[in-house]
Write a structure and sequence with these properties.
single chain; alpha+beta; Fumarylacetoacetate hydrolase, domain 2; 2 domains; 11-stranded mixed beta sheet; 5-stranded mixed beta sheet; FAH; hydrolase; Fumarylacetoacetase_C_sf; metal-binding
């Protein structure tokens, strides 16, 4: 199943376009996309009965983030060996976890206002939790995943390294620093959900190009490790880490600039296209 938020309403995506869930179900399911995770299995069973002829074309300008109000947003640092190496870190023996504040989330095509001259990119596969999870075994991890989407963990590097201890959550939670979308795709839609190509670019310049099989801690292991310490809730997000190619470690460093459009993709899900906007001029 593939879902999307269109005009702030939950839709099922099919080849011909999108089907409004609330209207087509006769009110059985709420229009709010975030409400779907409380009865995700029932929604999937119902979606299998849909007539594709009821679909309407999708206007990209009306597509928003597939999850808008998660209760918890986890993020994992240094979860690709090549990124850990380029940043000068040892490969971690346990996941490096921090939080992104939900107010940073934005849609797949929304503009992002830069906060300065050192905003960096980090394309990520984002997991959406589908059910309550506590002390889950790694071999059962995928059963707790509602779906996968594309994310950017945009990072203000000056804020991140301003002080004796990195300010990860603050640096990565400015308004618009969490683009998501364009679709949420259930794991069964992929031939191998543990091996997806992901990357990002500006115009014709590739910035990152990796595969999720190179994660230090793959998705099921992250579910197990996180749920050993925290209760995961339906609709929670897990930003699973980024491959090599970030701007801060380049020589010279390369950061996002006003007027550029950052294009981010994950195989089988789609792409984000977020224009970068100059910060406001302060008197």
């Amino acid at each position: 199943m593939r879902t999307a938020t269109i005009d702030d309403r939950l839709h099922i995506l099919v080849d011909a376009g999108a089907i409004d869930v609330h209207t087509t179900s006769g009110g059985r399911f709420a229009p709010d996309p975030d409400a779907a995770f409380e009865h995700w299995d029932r929604l999937r069973d119902w979606a299998d009965t849909l007539d594709p002829a009821r679909a309407v074309p999708v206007d990209r300008a009306r597509v928003g983030a597939p999850v808008r109000r998660p209760r918890q947003v986890f993020a994992v640092g240094a979860n690709y060996r090549d990124h850990a190496a380029e940043a000068g870190f040892e490969v971690p023996e346990s996941p490096v976890v921090f939080g992104k504040f939900p107010s940073c989330l934005t849609g797949p095509y929304d503009p992002v206002t830069l906060t300065g001259t050192t905003v960096d990119w980090e394309v990520e596969l984002v997991v959406v939790v589908g059910r309550f999870a506590r002390s889950v075994a790694a071999e059962d991890g995928w059963a707790y995943v509602a779906g996968l989407t594309v994310g950017q963990d945009l990072s203000e590097r000056t804020v991140q390294f301003d002080g004796p201890i990195p300010q990860l959550s603050l640096a990565k939670s400015c308004p618009g620093f969490g683009p998501l979308g364009p679709a949420l795709v259930t794991p069964d839609e992929f031939a191998d959900p543990d091996d997806l190509r992901l990357g990002c670019s500006i115009e014709d310049t590739t910035l990152q190009d990796g595969r999720t099989r190179d994660m230090v801690f793959p998705v099921p292991e992250l579910i197990a490790r996180l749920s050993a310490h925290c209760t995961l809730l339906p609709g929670d997000l897990i930003f699973t880490g980024t491959p090599a190619g970030v701007g801060a470690v380049r020589r010279p460093p390369r950061f996002l600039r006003p007027g550029e459009t950052l294009v981010s993709h994950v195989e089988g899900i789609g792409e984000l296209r977020n224009p970068m906007v100059a910060p406001p001029i302060r008197p």
